[in-house]
Amino acid sequence: MPPADKAGGQPPGRPPPGAKMPSSYQPTKDLVFNVTVPADASTVSVIDAVADVVGLPNVYMVQHLGGARFQCTLYTSAAMEQLLRHGGLSVCGKKVTIEVLAPRLTRVACLSLPGYVVDEHLIRALAPYGKVVSIERPTTVDRPSVRNGHRLFTLK
Q1: Which of 143, 139, 150, 145 is nearest to 117 (CA)?
Q2: Which residues are CB-contacts of 134 (< 8 A; sequence separation ≥ 6)?
Q3: What average pLDDT does the segment 58-81 reach?
Q4: Which domain holds residue 137?
Q5: Residue 49 burial (CB < 10 Å; 0-12/13-18/19+)?
Q6: Residue 104 and residue 82: Cα distance in Å, rounded?
Q7: Does 150 lie in the same domain as 119?
Q8: Which terminal Cβ of the chain has fewer Cβ within 10 Å, N or C?
Q9: Residue 13 — φ and ψ, nearest 5°?
């Protein structure tokens, strides 16, 4: 049996528990990021830099885009959050930043909100957390023309 990886006790190169196997795995854009590395960096050094932060079992793919650019895909959103909290990678001894492909969206549900509370007040209250890009007002199941009092905000 191969040695366990430091991140989660999994053998190196295996997806984390609960992740789909590589043959059926279809990554989503929110798990992909680009990185521009020093000229002397190799694919292996990029893989090692990502694995140092999130662990090798969380790395799905590293693709060389030409020149000094690479595109990396992770298995889970938890690994992506861990990488974003870390703030970048150290490749060949140099700190490099990552460029996330998909914007980070946050969904906020305002449950049982009185109907007289206007959206502008809520948009101002949510402003410190991001820009509101959409507002949904769900309806009741039996009467689709009647709102249920909830509002769902998507922030970017």
Answers
A1: 150
A2: 153, 154
A3: 92
A4: 106-155
A5: buried
A6: 14
A7: yes
A8: N
A9: 85, 0
